[in-house]
């Protein structure tokens, strides 16, 4: 048996403390072999009549149990093997639940997946008020379900609607949210956690556990529970509504949500043990689905990227304490926010007007105050965070900035002036980062005295929500600069990928042919709604026409010529799109685009007048399957070229960049796993099929043709 990660200590008051501490790891994860270790400890405690209660805690500050060890699933070949893994976890937690004395989980830090399932099997739960403490069952994000009793215990603790909401979204709750839901019994400072856990044990021994008084069922919440959960008809309404919501959001692309609903439903209709049985069976079936395999591959890819410095050279990142931001628009404001609130840096914003400065400050305060109102942070924490954010209309306060990030207009002369200003007003060690989405970084670096300290940081809008950071290096960018940007990006809560300089970099380059194809179809008379619905059904978060409105038609039309100049006719945008700017259609930013943007709360509608502007009569019929395949194939084809040309470092980075940057359907695992799954030979054949029908823009990349001949794959 492997070395135990569980340490048992008996206190004088008869309370046994089990401490979990996985050696050599920053976080605790559950492994299948630990069941035997816990079983031995419980057996030992069962024989000791002096034991009055058990506390389970973590030996790692800020981490209870981050979940189960997902690497175990890599060796699973059949649904039956995976089902047995689930049953092993179920048996372990049933042991805890049926133990002779009360067991309390003392939760400090991440309590996720199998960690929360363990806590649910305990008789009580107390949590620290640390911002690192989060509770959730995120298995659905891996295409799986909670397989160790979570689908049965969570609904019985917090109610069916709340449990389904947690499990179907994978959301993670802060301590106060968990307390309000009834997921934990008490929240205390981390220093008082063991004291609170001990008190909770004594309350459980005296049967002082919180039971709902009869008056609760006269309240609105109580009546709702009686109507919706305490009778079969009410439960059916809840489950049917959950299925409708799942279908509307997943478009049938993910099997896990329906399996979760089935587990909860059968657990209530047929009993707890029957619920456990279907949970284990469904878990086993999901593990071997292509959707789960794709989502798990992305989990491993992002885990690897967390340890990746972005360069092969043995260099260390420089400590960044203060960040300068040039431009108080939406991008600059978003960059300032993640630098202050997520990364905890001092930030100085410069804008040409005081209105721009105030806009940037208000942008951050709006987000931070929401967290304060939801009691995620205290008012003093909110004020302290805002104290790190300042602004001015000149370069006063920029001298000690370790990095300056510009987010101004896409104008090369203006950016050259920004480089010059920063080199004059900051230190010789200051990194100059540009947030350009279209201008090659090497051209911007031409205006620098120190081009080795010029780098691209391509954030995606809205910055506080989009997880990707594309770091663009030139031939002259120093390795320490790249490593420093990667480190800062991680602190900002981003998943960074490092790419080589070139027109469109990686993300915009693979996005362009996809959006162009939608534009070509629109120009031929395919309705806007048809195009957007086809791509959403295929798994994209929004359709390509909606995306154009959101990004800005003016921005897209600036990027398009740069890509066409670099790559020729295959990147040529629809000629009719120039008419949109002539009609002052920029998209959502001026409420004039492909869609109308009515008052808040009302559904947006296609602006029918746009067809007249484009000179198009909608009505051409093209199947959703063809629309989706044409768009995805063009994106994948361009991604293959990017890898072959060295724009991206690996297929892994290409998959992560596509999913996190533009919402490539996660259940495919990214464009490279998509090509592997369908087979490179099939991809080449389908591209040639469309090439014969629609022209040279579908010509398969040379690298794909060679891979087909050699029967190769990307992974």
From TrEMBL:
PROSITE patterns: 3HCDH (PS00067). Keywords: Cytoplasm, Fatty acid metabolism, Isomerase, Lipid degradation, Lipid metabolism, Lyase, Multifunctional enzyme, NAD, Oxidoreductase. Coiled coil: none annotated. Gene3D superfamilies: 1.10.1040.50, 2-enoyl-CoA Hydratase, Chain A, domain 1, NAD(P)-binding Rossmann-like Domain. It holds the Pfam family 3HCDH_N. Transmembrane segments: none annotated. Its EC number is 4.2.1.17. Pathway: Lipid metabolism; fatty acid beta-oxidation. It catalyses: a (3S)-3-hydroxyacyl-CoA + NAD(+) = a 3-oxoacyl-CoA + NADH + H(+). GO terms for molecular function: 3-hydroxybutyryl-CoA epimerase activity; enoyl-CoA hydratase activity; long-chain (3S)-3-hydroxyacyl-CoA dehydrogenase (NAD+) activity; NAD+ binding. In the central section; belongs to the 3-hydroxyacyl-CoA dehydrogenase family. In the N-terminal section; belongs to the enoyl-CoA hydratase/isomerase family. PANTHER family: TRIFUNCTIONAL ENZYME SUBUNIT ALPHA, TRIFUNCTIONAL ENZYME SUBUNIT ALPHA, MITOCHONDRIAL. This is enoyl-CoA hydratase. It comes from Kangiella profundi.
């Amino acid at each position: 048996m492997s070395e135990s990660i569980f340490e048992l200590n008996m206190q004088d008051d008869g309370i046994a403390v089990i401490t979990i501490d996985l050696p050599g790891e920053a976080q605790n994860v559950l492994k299948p072999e630990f069941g035997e270790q816990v079983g031995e400890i419980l057996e030992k405690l069962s024989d000791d009549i002096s034991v009055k209660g058990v506390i389970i805690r973590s030996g790692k500050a800020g981490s209870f149990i981050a979940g189960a060890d997902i690497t175990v699933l890599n060796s699973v070949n059949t649904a039956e093997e995976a089902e047995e893994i689930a049953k092993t976890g179920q048996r372990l937690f049933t042991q805890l639940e049926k133990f002779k004395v009360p067991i309390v989980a003392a939760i400090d830090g991440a309590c996720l997946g199998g960690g929360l399932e363990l806590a649910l099997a305990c008789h009580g739960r107390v949590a620290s008020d640390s911002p690192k403490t989060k509770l959730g069952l995120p298995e659905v994000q891996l295409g799986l379900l909670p397989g160790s009793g979570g689908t049965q215990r969570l609904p019985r603790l917090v109610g069916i609607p709340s449990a389904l909401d947690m499990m179907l979204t994978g959301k993670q709750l802060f301590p106060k949210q968990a307390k309000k839901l009834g997921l934990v019994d008490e929240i205390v400072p981390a220093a008082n956690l063991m004291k609170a856990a001990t008190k909770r044990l004594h309350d459980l021994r005296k049967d002082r556990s919180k039971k709902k008084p009869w008056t609760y069922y006269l309240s609105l919440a109580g009546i709702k529970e009686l109507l919706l959960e305490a009778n079969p008809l009410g439960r059916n309404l809840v489950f049917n509504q959950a299925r409708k919501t799942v279908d509307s959001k997943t478009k049938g692309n993910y099997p896990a949500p329906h399996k979760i609903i089935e587990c909860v439903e059968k657990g209530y209709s047929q009993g707890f043990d029957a619920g456990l049985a279907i949970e284990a069976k469904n878990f086993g079936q999901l593990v071997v689905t292509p959707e789960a395999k794709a989502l798990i591959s992305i989990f491993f890819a992002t885990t690897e990227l967390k340890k990746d410095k972005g360069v092969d050279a043995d260099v260390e990142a420089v400590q960044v304490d203060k960040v300068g931001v040039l431009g108080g628009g939406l991008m600059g404001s978003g960059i300032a926010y993640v630098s202050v609130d997520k990364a905890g840096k001092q930030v100085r914003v410069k804008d040409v007007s005081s209105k721009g400065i105030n806009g940037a400050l208000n942008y951050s305060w709006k987000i931070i105050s929401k967290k304060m109102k939801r009691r995620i942070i205290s008012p003093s924490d909110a004020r302290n965070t805002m104290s790190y954010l300042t602004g001015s209309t000149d370069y006063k306060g920029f001298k000690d900035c370790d990095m300056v990030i510009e987010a101004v207009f896409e104008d090369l002369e203006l950016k050259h002036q920004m480089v010059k200003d920063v080199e004059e007003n900051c230190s010789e060690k200051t990194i100059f980062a540009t947030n350009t989405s279209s201008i090659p970084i090497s051209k911007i670096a031409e205006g620098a005295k120190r081009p080795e300290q010029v780098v691209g940081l391509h954030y995606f809008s809205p910055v506080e929500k989009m997880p990707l950071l594309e770091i663009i290096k030139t031939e002259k960018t120093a390795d320490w600069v790249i490593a420093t940007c990667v480190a800062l990006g991680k602190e900002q809560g981003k998943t960074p990928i490092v790419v080589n300089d070139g027109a469109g970099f990686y993300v915009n380059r693979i996005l362009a042919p996809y959006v162009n194809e939608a534009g070509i179809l629109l120009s031929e008379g395919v309705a806007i709604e048809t195009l957007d619905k086809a791509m959403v059904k295929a798994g994209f978060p929004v359709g390509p026409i909606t995306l154009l409105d959101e990004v800005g038609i003016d921005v897209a039309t600036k990027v398009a010529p740069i890509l066409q100049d670099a790559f020729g006719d295959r990147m040529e945008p629809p000629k009719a799109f120039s008419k949109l700017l002539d009609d002052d259609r920029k998209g959502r930013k001026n409420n004039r685009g492909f869609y109308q943007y009515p008052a808040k709360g009302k559904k947006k509608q296609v602006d029918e007048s746009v067809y007249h502007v484009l000179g198009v009569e909608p009505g051409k019929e093209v199947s959703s399957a063809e629309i989706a395949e044409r768009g995805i194939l063009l994106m994948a084809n361009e991604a293959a070229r990017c890898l072959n040309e060295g724009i991206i470092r690996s297929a892994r980075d290409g998959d992560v960049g596509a999913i996190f940057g533009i919402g490539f359907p996660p259940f495919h695992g990214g464009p490279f796993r998509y090509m592997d799954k369908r087979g490179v030979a099939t991809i080449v054949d389908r591209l040639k099929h469309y090439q014969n029908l629609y022209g040279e823009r579908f010509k398969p990349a040379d690298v794909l043709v060679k891979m087909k001949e050699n029967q190769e794959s990307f992974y």
